[in-house]
């Protein structure tokens, strides 16, 4: 049975657990129909031209893992930014792990989506926000249909959360192949501040296919600083779809660090629904082997006087492939928009590939929109310059790669995270340099 | 210190150096002058180890050891320093981080520990003062947005930090006004001692008023065609190169 049919038939069993009068029952029924009609995206679709899911879909994934999810803390300690004293929502093979998590209902909610979906007290919030910004494409619909578990974060107005909240999805490898569909809902109230780190991490070499969807709502003057760490094992693939709805004067930043995994597709969608919003989308991608990362971004400028800043850097080695598809839409009402998009790529090896496609659709006449895209190699003159100063070839190459990625790294606002990413980059490039950038 | 014997070098099948002979002893300053396209910068790059150039014949000996097969970084570790005519801009790496890395990589190659941070800082301050470099300058990205003069001053700052045995200054005077020229020349002179040597490549005699050479060589069509004392530089300034061409033909 192919994966699509397997999902459809398992939905029938899954549906039995849903209460027919729950507010989401209808949503899910509609969503599964969309998936049934459209199926998985193929390369024939413009947005999927350079990313094929074919090889992923051939695997026979387990959709409902066994209940044994014992994970020792010491096994996974390295994946946490802070061991103690911070809020974390941890899932193991798609199931909430209370031992590794630290949730709260004290002046804010950092808990489980399953709780929010089932408990009556959350009903108004769920009705107001759940699936309200998410798209109706087949993969999002598939996630919506199966959405059962994920992080639910509600930051009430004026609340400034001091330490970053971590959302981590572990896959143990207890199953030969596992499909996960986490669903996160994050609501950041008026003038509230939050930093969130999201990570998908496999603990074995077994195949994992994650179809993750996150909805983020930033109310007036809210500040959301979101980091995605994608440094997964060689057999882990991720489709990560994020929808962000921004109200007046809100500021949302998403940084995506893609170093690992087999196939990663990031769909990052920003909708500016109020004036003077600020959106930042930045990423560093460093690939090797046959890795594939596809960044598909959308910034929809709907209201006037908003800004958006995109900056993606990619370094591609061996026969890895990258895609950058950045779309900026400026609606007719969105006068005085200031939209900036930058995408720079370095191909280290002859067989590495990048497909870059900036798309600007501008319907307003008084806007500032710019985009730049470069694809090149490491500068030989610069290499000679560094080497003539006694810096070895490997280190000189590394230094140039660091320098290349530095713009993006500099805007990471969590020092410990910055240090970790710096280390990840050094490991990935295979050198140690005597300084942090 | 440096012995160049019958050096031939080419780039993309084109011969640029056609038998250069040059001997530089410790404590000496040699000036290499010559018209455009005579091979001056190529000679500098070949000594520093730029891979683009192929050495087709001849030797380059540094303290008796042939360095023609060495990588640029290995030559640097042995004390060769090239001050670039056009220093490369490297956004994202500060002057300070760059020089720290350069020094510690060289120390590593010599089996030494990293230079202690306090010592490094002291040295950076001292050399920056010597070249009248503003401290703020040190935290800027390497050569990015630097004026021509700032770039050259930064090259000599690196020279001062690295303390090489053999310094090759490739048109360090171009892009410098007279005040900057004096500062840079003063920096170079302060670093001179009986154990190191300097090769100054220049178009103009002006720099040689401040960094006084022991010998002046004229490079033409990839060969040193005339050598003489410092007075030769004045003669070239006054008369140009045509008379030498005539002399060579004759």
UniProtKB/TrEMBL annotation, chain B:
GO function terms (MF aspect):
ATP binding; ATP hydrolysis activity
InterPro entries attached here?
AAA+_ATPase (IPR003593), ABC_transporter-like_ATP-bd (IPR003439), FeS-cluster_ATPase_SufC (IPR010230), P-loop_NTPase (IPR027417)
Q: Keywords assigned by UniProt?
A: ATP-binding, Nucleotide-binding
Superkingdom of the source species: Bacteria
Q: Which Pfam families match?
A: ABC_tran
> Does the entry feature the keyword Amino-acid biosynthesis, yes or no?
no
Domain ABC transporter span(s) in chain numbering: 2-246
Q: Which SUPFAM superfamilies match?
A: P-loop containing nucleoside triphosphate hydrolases
Q: Which family does it belong to?
A: Belongs to the ABC transporter superfamily. Ycf16 family.
Query: What is the protein's given name?
Result: Fe-S cluster assembly ATPase SufC
Q: Which organism is it from?
A: Pukyongia salina
């Amino acid at each position: 049975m192919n994966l699509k049919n397997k999902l459809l038939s398992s939905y029938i069993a899954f549906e039995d657990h849903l209460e027919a009068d729950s507010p989401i029952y209808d949503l899910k029924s509609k969503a599964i129909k969309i998936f049934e009609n459209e199926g998985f995206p193929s390369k024939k679709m413009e947005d999927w031209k350079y990313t094929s899911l074919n090889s992923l879909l051939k695997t026979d994934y387990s959709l409902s893992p066994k209940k044994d999810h014992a994970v020792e803390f010491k096994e996974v300690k390295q994946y946490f930014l802070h061991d103690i004293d911070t809020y974390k929502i941890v899932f193991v093979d798609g199931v909430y792990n209370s031992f590794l998590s630290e949730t709260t209902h004290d002046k804010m909610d950092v808990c489980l989506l399953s709780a929010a979906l089932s408990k009556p007290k959350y009903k108004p919030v769920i009705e107001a926000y759940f699936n309200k910004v998410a798209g109706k494409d087949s993969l999002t619909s598939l996630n919506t249909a199966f959405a059962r578990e994920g992080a639910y974060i509600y930051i009430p107005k004026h609340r400034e959360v001091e330490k970053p909240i971590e959302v981590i999805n572990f896959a143990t490898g207890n199953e030969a192949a596992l499909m996960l569909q986490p669903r996160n809902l994050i609501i950041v109230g008026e003038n509230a501040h939050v930093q969130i780190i999201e990570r998908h991490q496999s603990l074995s070499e077994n195949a994992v296919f994650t179809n993750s969807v996150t909805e983020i709502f930033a109310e007036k003057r809210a500040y959301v600083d979101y980091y995605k760490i994608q440094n997964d094992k060689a057999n882990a693939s991720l489709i990560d779809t994020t929808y962000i709805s921004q109200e007046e004067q809100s500021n949302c930043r998403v940084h995506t660090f893609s170093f690992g995994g087999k196939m990663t597709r990031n769909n990052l969608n920003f909708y500016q629904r109020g004036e003077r919003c600020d959106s930042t989308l930045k990423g560093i991608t460093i690939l090797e082997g046959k890795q594939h990362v596809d960044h598909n971004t959308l910034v929809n400028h709907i209201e006037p006087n908003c800004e958006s800043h995109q900056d993606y850097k990619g370094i591609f080695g061996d026969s890895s492939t990258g895609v950058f598809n950045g779309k900026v839409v400026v609606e007719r009402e969105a006068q005085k928009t200031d939209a900036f998009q930058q995408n720079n790529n370095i191909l280290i090896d002859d067989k590495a590939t990048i497909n870059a496609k900036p798309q600007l659709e501008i319907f307003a006449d008084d806007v500032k929109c710019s985009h730049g895209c470069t694809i090149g190699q490491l500068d030989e003159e610069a290499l000679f310059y560094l080497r003539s100063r006694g810096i070895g070839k490997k280190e000189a190459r590394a230094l140039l790669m660091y320098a290349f990625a530095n713009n993006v790294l500099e805007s990471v606002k969590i020092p410990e995270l910055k240090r970790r990413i710096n280390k990840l980059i050094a490991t990935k490039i295979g050198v140690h340099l005597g300084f942090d950038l | 210190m440096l012995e160049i014997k019958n050096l031939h070098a080419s780039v993309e099948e084109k011969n640029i150096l056609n038998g250069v002979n040059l001997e530089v002893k410790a404590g000496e300053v040699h000036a290499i002058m010559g018209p455009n396209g005579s091979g001056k910068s190529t000679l500098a790059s070949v000594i520093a180890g730029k891979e683009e150039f192929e050495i087709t014949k001849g030797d380059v000996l540094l303290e008796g050891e042939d360095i023609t097969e060495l990588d640029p970084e290995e030559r640097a570790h042995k004390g060769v320093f090239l001050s670039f005519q056009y220093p490369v801009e490297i956004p994202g790496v500060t002057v300070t981080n760059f020089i720290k890395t350069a020094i510690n990589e060289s120390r590593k190659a010599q089996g030494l520990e990293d230079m202690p941070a306090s010592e490094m800082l002291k040295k950076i301050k001292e050399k920056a003062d010597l070249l009248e470099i503003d401290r703020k300058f040190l935290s800027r990205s390497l050569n990015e947005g630097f004026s021509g003069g700032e770039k050259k001053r930064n090259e000599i700052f690196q020279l001062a930090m690295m303390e090489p045995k053999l310094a090759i200054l490739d048109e360090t005077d171009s892009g410098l006004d007279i005040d900057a020229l004096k500062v840079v020349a003063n920096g170079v002179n302060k670093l001179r001692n009986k154990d190191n040597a300097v090769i100054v490549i220049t178009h103009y005699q002006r720099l040689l008023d401040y960094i006084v050479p022991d010998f002046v060589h004229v490079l033409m069509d990839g060969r040193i065609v005339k050598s003489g004392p410092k007075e030769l530089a004045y003669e070239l300034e006054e008369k140009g190169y045509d008379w030498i061409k005539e002399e060579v033909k004759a």
